[in-house]
């Protein structure tokens, strides 16, 4: 290996004309400046601009950073204006909602990663839309039932973006104290508003009702009329036709007791 004019390693066997081209190219690439996070990046940009010989990013001279708090695929980022930051993966990178809201120059199909929520966003030509994420926990408001406390009592709701749609996973376990067994149970969506559903339409998903003795029964996820805030859990009566769908009661489709569960998942399209 040899060393070029900017200190980069290049193959020793490179012939002279190509070696010269490597040298010229290497001089146009700045080594990424290491920063811990967005705040440190902002501080460093300000200090560079205030130097006796100011250094400011431009289209002909972008500034690169290695930002340690970003996922590995997005840690090397660059800017030409000090406001918009794009990773070498081609994604915009923002610290929070404020930075995402201030981004400019986007076109349909552009992707961006938001550090505080770990959500990847996709621009549709008009606005940023959630595209992919890990699971995000949220606290749902429950109607028509209460899990209570004691024993294995649990109310767990979480969501994630999957190719622009939202998947919700839920698990409710009734406790030994203060539980109210379900009568037309409902709970709230996460803070991602769905497209207004058709009245009492079915979602892509399911719910399973189970006793702690192992008895189970299937059910459905149903729109709460046309609500965009709550969703219902249904039960299959097995009678077919328009009477096939009904809603759980304390004794149907299982006899609910401490330790009984309502668990499932569904997908919806956000606005």
Output the structural class: mainly beta
Radius of gyration: 27 Å
Distance between the termini: 55 Å
Global morphology: elongated
**Total beta-strand segments:** 20
H/E element string?
EEHEHEEEEHEEEEEEEEEEEEE
Uncertain regions: pLDDT < 50 for 5+ in a row?
none
State the helical fraction.
10-25%
Write up this protein.
- This protein has 271 residues and is mostly beta strands.
- The protein has three helices and 20 strands.
- Strands 11, 12, 13, 14, 15, 16, 17, 18, 19 and 20 form a ten-stranded antiparallel beta sheet that branches. It has a four-stranded mixed beta sheet with strand order 3-4-5-6, covered by helices on one side. A four-stranded mixed beta sheet has the order 7-8-9-10.
- Strand 17 (216-223) and strand 18 form a beta hairpin.
- The longest helix is centred in the first third of the chain and has 12 residues, at 16-27.
- The protein starts with a strand and ends with a strand.
- The mean pLDDT is 90.
Summarize the structure.
Helices cover 11% and strands 35% of the residues. It has helices spanning 16-27, 38-49, 97-102, and strands spanning 2-3, 9-10, 33-35, 63-67, 76-79, 86-87, 92-94, 111-114, 119-123, 128-133, 136-138, 142-143, 154-162, 165-173, 186-188, 204-210, 216-223, 230-236, 245-246, 261-268.
Topology (elements, then pairings):
Layout lengths: L1 E2 L5 E2 L5 H12 L5 E3 L2 H12 L13 E5 L8 E4 L6 E2 L4 E3 L2 H6 L8 E4 L4 E5 L4 E6 L2 E3 L3 E2 L10 E9 L2 E9 L12 E3 L15 E7 L5 E8 L6 E7 L8 E2 L14 E8 L3
Parallel strand pairs: 3-4, 7-8
Antiparallel strand pairs: 1-2, 4-5, 5-6, 8-9, 9-10, 11-13, 12-15, 13-14, 14-20, 15-18, 16-17, 16-20, 17-18, 18-19
């Amino acid at each position: 290996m040899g060393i070029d004019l900017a200190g980069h390693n290049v193959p020793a066997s490179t012939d002279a004309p190509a070696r010269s081209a490597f040298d010229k190219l290497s001089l146009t690439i700045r080594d990424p400046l290491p920063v811990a996070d967005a705040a440190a990046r902002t501080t460093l940009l300000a200090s560079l601009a205030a130097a006796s010989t100011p250094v400011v990013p431009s289209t002909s001279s972008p500034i690169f950073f290695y930002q340690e708090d970003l996922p590995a695929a997005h840690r090397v980022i660059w800017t030409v204006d000090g406001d918009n930051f794009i990773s070498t993966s081609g994604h915009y990178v923002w610290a929070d909602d404020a930075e995402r809201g201030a981004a400019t120059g986007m076109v349909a199909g552009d992707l961006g990663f938001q550090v505080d929520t770990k959500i990847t966003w996709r621009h549709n030509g008009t606005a940023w839309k959630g595209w992919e994420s890990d699971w995000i926990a949220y606290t749902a408001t429950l109607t028509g039932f209460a899990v209570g406390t004691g024993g294995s009592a649990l109310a767990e709701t979480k969501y994630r973006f999957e190719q622009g749609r939202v998947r919700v996973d839920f698990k409710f376990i009734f406790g030994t104290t203060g539980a109210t067994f379900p009568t037309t149970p409902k709970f709230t969506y996460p803070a991602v508003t769905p497209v207004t559903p058709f009245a009492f339409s079915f979602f892509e998903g399911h719910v399973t009702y189970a006793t702690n003795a192992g008895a189970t029964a299937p059910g459905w996820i149903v729109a709460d009329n046309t609500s965009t805030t709550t969703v219902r859990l249904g039960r299959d009566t097995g009678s077919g036709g328009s009477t096939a769908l009904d809603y759980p009661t304390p004794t149907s489709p299982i006899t609910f007791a401490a330790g009984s569960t309502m668990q499932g998942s569904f997908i919806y399209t956000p606005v």
